[in-house]
Every structure is written in structure tokens, then in C-alpha cells.
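Researcher: Predict the fold of Transcriptional regulator PadR-like family protein.
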Amino acid sequence: MDTPLREPTFLILTALAGEPMHGYGLIGEVTSLSDGRVSLRPGTLYGALDRLVDAGLVEVDREEVVDGRLRRYYRLSPAGDATLSAETERLRRNVEAATSRLRARARTARPLAPRTAGGLA
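Model: C-alpha cells for Transcriptional regulator PadR-like family protein follow.
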């Protein structure tokens, strides 16, 4: 993928970098990784997983029947690993650039002169 990943996609790939997971496990992991900022609904997640499988970034790891329902586990593919690594590096460089600029700004910022009571001195 040449374009930056959307945050939910980045978080799904990040969750799968740890171990294969099923859909509802991914929903919880994405919520945890984002400190609750990103909360995926099942339809959104499964649509994203279908797109990621079609793009070759995620693979089906295995399927099992639990309580009469099919549970599908997904894993990061080698292409998904490479994409996540590249995106992580891109974000790291962006954070490094922003941090450097903010530090430089803080060094050159002048503190405000204290105000005196009664107007101009």
C-alpha cells in the first residue's frame, strides 16, 4: 500500500502482529490499543477484514466451531507485516519531525512579560 493507512486499519494490523485472532477478539484489542478512541462495530470490522484479505495483508489462520457458530481466526500475512512495518516507520519519522520542531519552538519561545496592575508601566 502506497497511501497511509487509516487508523482502524493500522490498529487491526497491529493487533494481528501479536497473534492470530478472531473478529470479536480483534474488536476488543483495537479498542484497547487505541485507549478506547477506536471502537469497531462487527460489520465495519468484517468489511475491513475482507478488504485486507483481498489485498493480501491478512490471511485466514484457521476456523473452528464454537457453540455451533463458525469462528474464523485471522493472521498477518508477510505482505501485511511489511506494510505495517513501513507504516510504522513512516509514522515514526513524522513524530520525530514534529517533536524536533516543537523542541526548537520551545527553545526560542519568549516568556510573556509579567503584567503590572494598573495598566502600562
